[in-house]
Amino acid sequence: MKLFFGEINNGKAIINDEEQQHIVKVLRMKNGEEIHVTDGKGNLASGTLMIEGKKANIEVSEIKTDLPNFSSKLHIAIAPTKNIDRIEFFVEKAVEMGISEITILQTEKTERKNINIDKLKKQAIAASKQSLRFHFPVINDIIKIQDFLKKTNPETTFVAHCHENLERIDLKEIPTLENITFFIGPEGDFSEKEISFLAENNVKAVSLGNQRLRTETAGIFVAAWNYYNLI
User: Fold this and answer.
1) Contacts of 129 (CB under 8 A, 6+ apart)
2) Is this prediction's pTM over 0.85?
3) pLDDT-based confidence at 164, cuts 50/70/90?
């Protein structure tokens, strides 16, 4: 399936401008080829490609709406790494494994203060198309840990940290939930002050195993755990 991003309204589909350029200049697709367009909201248009100059359009033959999404919604709030490539790698892999939402988290030890959210969103769209997802995940800009906590339900929120002297439950003990949120800390981990703050707000601490995982590895590990529970 050749899947592209665009808008779907009133029985018509419009391919995104950047996608049109990719179709014409990079893929060099031809008139009459079968293509599919999703709006990332659970809708899918199928049809044939029509190229006019530098413009690529779809002659729609069928539109499917309200396509099924993953039954469990995973939201990971993750601190950005100093090397942004590692967070970009996390976004790509987590999206492929069905994550519903990603928030960039500012912590006491976060060194990187600015994030190119538009670039992360484009990577999330690309990963969604690659894995044939018709519901794109939400990518949120950087936010302080205290402010993010106000938006969460402590009953379904967990924090993964490496402080062995503090109480933690095993990841395998967490049941499959309809909505679940994870805090993933920065390089150097959350501070004990932050962990205490989360504990005071009834956020449960989780161990991801005996190995110390890098930030992006921990995020991918949680995404893979959730994906495994879905299949």
Assistant:
1) 3, 4, 5, 38
2) yes
3) confident
